[in-house]
Amino acid sequence: MVKKLTDIIIRTAGLKTLIITILLVIIAEIGFSLLTPEFTRLSGGPLLDMSIWYHADYAYDRLTSFAAAGESYFYIRLIDFFFPPIYACTFSILSAVIYRKKYSNPADYRWIIAAPFLGAFFDYSENILLVILFRSLPGRYPLIAEICNIATLGKFVLISFSILLIITGAFSLLKGSDSSFLHGNKFRGAKKEIKDDK
Predict the structure, then answer these.
(1) Rounded distance, CA 189 to CA 172, Å?
(2) Mean per-residue pLDDT over the chain, rounded
(3) Using an 8 Å Cβ cutoff, are 120 and 87 in contact?
(4) Cα separation of 129 and 66, whole Å?
(5) Three state DSSP letters for the chain
(6) Where are the domains of the chain?
(7) Mean per-residue pLDDT for 50-74?
(8) CA torsion angle for 167, 159, 58, 39 (degrees, to 10)?
């Protein structure tokens, strides 16, 4: 399944698909930026999605206050349902555009294209658990809250790692050298030079 998904990304990645996904990310971010201030004012604090590390007690303190921001919280959750695959596709397409210019064998960079989707998986896991915790109030399930925290942390780590891979790939493409994360692999230009020498 991962191979099929990355093959589709590699095959379809281009300026048009990149522009479309970036526009969708911008639209989603505008939605978040319009809803979040109202949510923060009514609930008295930030979304749990944006807290990198928290404990069950803090999670339930925040969840209890979310009822006061019911409508804005509902629309934030609605946008966040579509957001993970949108940003995952954007990062994956951008990675494919960069790395396929350097490496002729997709197996060398397939995991880089897959990384954003793993981040999106953690994001969806976090969203599902947050809905379960919120809908189960006033009941308390501390273990689920702790697992949700791990999913949030995993989301941030993988998204940050994907951005780092894009940045290092872009710099290495400009310099004409191997990416720091793919050190030792031959990129397309080097192979062509070797063939020409023969």
Answers:
(1) 13
(2) 86
(3) yes
(4) 15
(5) CHHHHHHHHHHHCCHHHHHHHHHHHHHHHHHHHHHHHHHHHHHCCCCHHHCCCCCHHHHHHHHHHHHHHHHHHHHHHHHHHHHHHHHHHHHHHHHHHHHCCCCCCHHHCHHHHHHHHHHHHHHHHHHHHHHHHHHCCCCCCHHHHHHHHHHHHHHHHHHHHHHHHHHHHHHHHHHCCCCHHHCCCCCHHHHHHHHHHC
(6) 2-186
(7) 88
(8) 90
pLDDT at site 194: 34
Mean pLDDT of 88-105: 90
Tens of pLDDT, residue by residue over 143-181, are 999 999 999 999 999 999 999 999 988 888 777 655 555
Query: In whole angstroms, what separates CA 48 from the centre of its chain?
Result: 16
